Amino acid sequence: MVQIAGDCKGDDCPKVFTTDRNSIVVQGDLVTSLDSPDGEAVVEIPRKVWEEAARAFGR
């Protein structure tokens, strides 16, 4: 995986990655107020991290 967004140095902050499978992985704070199917999670990331990821893709 290659990190394309997120400005923190540790492992516990929002980040966006690309994979060698042409997909995106998002790390963020777990949202417990929404239900998600087994094996899935809902995460929250700051808008600025999402915008940084979009810029990395040239959007």
Summary?
By secondary structure, the protein is of the alpha+beta class.
Q: Which structural class do the helices and strands define? A: alpha+beta
Give the overall pLDDT as a whole number.
89
**Strand arrangement, major sheet:** 1-2-3
Overall geometric form: globular
Total DSSP helices: 1
How are the elements arranged and paired?
Blueprint: E1 2-5, E2 15-18, E3 24-27, E4 29-30, E5 43-44, H1 47-56
Antiparallel strand pairs: 1-2, 2-3, 4-5
Model description:
The chain is an alpha+beta fold and 59 residues long. Helices cover 17% and strands 27% of the residues. It has one helix and five strands. The chain has one helix at 47-56; strands at 2-5, 15-18, 24-27, 29-30, 43-44. The strands form two sheets. A three-stranded antiparallel beta sheet has the order 1-2-3. A two-stranded antiparallel sheet has the order 4-5. It is globular. The mean pLDDT is 89.
